[in-house]
């Protein structure tokens, strides 16, 4: 069975997380489900090609693949480097004052004349080795590294004005790993907008972005909750990319992966929800205001076994290490897989949006927000539109259409009717029929232009006579007029003399009884 090919979209995320988030190989592997060997390979390819994140960020997936494929192959050492004794490093680090820098210098001094690892490689070797130790050992939480998130099991009823329960609010809880600084808020449910909205509110509460988001494993965020290689949903991927961070969901049925937030949930239930048990709330805003006041009290309450408070630890540890928030708050987006139709449009919720005509019949993704629709191809935005909720209507950018279609866009119903009237009454009647008997006027433009263009070959008089005959026989279509002209039937006497009063048939292909006289 052939091996699964890693997409360029994942490779681009690998490079982003390594270069902008400074994550280890194993953290990137856990967040994206990419093998360690693949990560190393593409980092070497990018380095050989002289690429950095500033050069890679604006590239499409196809452009990135082209650069990496044409770049220099990863360099290999002439000889094998001396591997350090990671068990010795781990043991020596327990001694007071011993650092990795000191141990690296001793490792180099102990191997004179040999090919040794550089300091960064030395640290990475030890870090990767330490990750293989027993999972139940106490976790070390570094400043600004991880934000743990989950929902409490308890809910809070929101009442309507008659005293009945309108709905039950769910309580979102987030905890920073190093300081235990806690955030909580109420949401209407635990759907994707609630999860992502809670994470955004938490980061804005902390005033910065951590390197890793560690939520539970909810279907709202994870499209494939695999124990070893969970796959983020498209909306979740878009969200973490916007905040230039990574998401490493906890493994199913492994509460130790998110022990911090498990304790945080317990504290919120005991110190906040228990205090609100006798209160009545009539809106989420009212409940969130009460929660915010009690969260402030919780974060300023002294630790029982440690010195200081959560807020003091946050100010000293996590706050300086958090990366700044982006200038624009993330807007929840959904993604739809679409195919560009032959008319250079895609359909989103019954409305039609144009895409470059070079993508006809190709598969694209539509990124849909509350106010906009973006068309993405190969990870690159190719079209942007304001969102419309008018079903059956079209939003078209002229530049997206072929040159011949752009000429059609210059035509309007009134201009076509005037052109038809310049030929004759019958020609105008058929143009009006073509415009008014379609779901959308633009759908009749091509037929009208085809009809009126017949005057160049056959002349206005013959075209008017053919239109008159088409009305009499009840077939007011461009194809019928063309057939009449080709067969010369327009030169024959009409089946009926006198004034012509045409009425639209039930269907344009129904010719009517007069046709058979």
From TrEMBL:
One of the GO BP terms on file: DNA integration
Domain HTH IS408-type span(s) in chain numbering: 11-93
UniProt xrefs under PROSITE patterns: HTH_IS408, INTEGRASE
Organism superkingdom: Bacteria
InterPro entries membership: HTH_IS408/IS1162_type, Integrase_cat-core, IstA-like_C, RNaseH-like_sf, RNaseH_sf
Similarity remark: Belongs to the transposase IS21/IS408/IS1162 family.
Protein name: Transposase
């Amino acid at each position: 069975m052939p091996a699964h090919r890693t997409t360029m979209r994942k490779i681009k995320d690998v490079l982003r997380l390594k270069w902008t988030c400074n994550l280890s190989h194993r953290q990137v592997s856990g967040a994206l489900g990419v093998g360690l060997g693949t990560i190393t390979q593409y980092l070497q390819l990018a380095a050989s090609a002289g690429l950095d994140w500033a050069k890679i960020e604006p590239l499409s997936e196809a452009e990135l693949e082209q650069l990496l494929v044409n770049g220099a192959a990863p360099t290999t050492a002439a000889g094998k480097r001396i591997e350090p004794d990671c068990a010795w490093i781990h043991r020596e680090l327990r001694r007071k004052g011993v650092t990795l820098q000191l141990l690296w210098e001793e490792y180099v001094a102990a191997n004179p004349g040999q090919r040794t690892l550089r300091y960064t490689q030395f640290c990475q070797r030890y870090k990767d080795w330490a990750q293989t130790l027993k999972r139940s050992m106490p976790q070390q939480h570094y400043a600004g590294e991880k934000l743990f998130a989950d929902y409490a099991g308890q809910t809070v009823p929101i009442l309507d004005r008659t005293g009945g329960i309108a709905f039950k609010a769910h309580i979102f809880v987030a905890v920073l790993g190093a300081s235990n600084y806690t955030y909580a808020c109420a949401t209407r449910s635990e759907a994707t907008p609630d999860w992502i909205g809670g994470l955004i509110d938490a980061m804005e509460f902390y005033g910065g972005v951590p390197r890793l988001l560690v939520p539970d494993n909810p279907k709202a965020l994870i499209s494939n909750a695999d124990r070893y290689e969970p796959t983020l949903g498209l909306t979740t991927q878009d969200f973490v990319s916007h905040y230039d961070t990574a998401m490493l969901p906890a493994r199913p049925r492994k509460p130790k992966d998110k022990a911090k937030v498990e304790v945080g949930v317990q504290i919120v239930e005991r110190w906040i929800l228990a205090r609100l048990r006798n209160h009545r709330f009539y809106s989420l805003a009212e409940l969130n205001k009460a929660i915010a006041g009690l969260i402030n009290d919780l974060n300023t309450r002294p630790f029982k076994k440690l010195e200081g408070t959560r807020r003091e630890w946050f100010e000293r540890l996590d706050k300086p290490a958090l990366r700044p928030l982006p200038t624009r708050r993330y807007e929840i987006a959904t993604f739809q897989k679409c195919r560009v139709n032959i008319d250079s449009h895609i359909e989103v919720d019954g409305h039609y949006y144009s895409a470059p005509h070079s993508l006809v019949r190709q598969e694209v993704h539509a990124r849909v927000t509350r106010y906009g629709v973006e068309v993405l191809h190969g990870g690159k935005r190719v079209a942007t539109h304001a969102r419309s909720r008018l079903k059956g209507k079209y939003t078209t950018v002229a530049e997206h259409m072929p040159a011949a279609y752009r000429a059609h866009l210059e035509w309007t119903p009134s201009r076509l009717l005037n052109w038809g009237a310049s030929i004759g009454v019958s020609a105008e009647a058929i143009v009006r029929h073509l415009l008014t008997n379609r779901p959308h006027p633009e759908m009749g433009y091509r037929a009208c232009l085809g009809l009126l263009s017949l005057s160049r070959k056959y002349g206005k008089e013959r075209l008017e006579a053919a239109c008159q005959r088409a009305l009499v026989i009840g077939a007011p279509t461009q194809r019928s007029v063309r057939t009449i002209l080709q067969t010369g039937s327009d030169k024959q006497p009409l089946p009926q003399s006198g004034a012509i009063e045409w009425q639209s048939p039930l269907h344009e292909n129904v010719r009517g009884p007069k046709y058979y006289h």
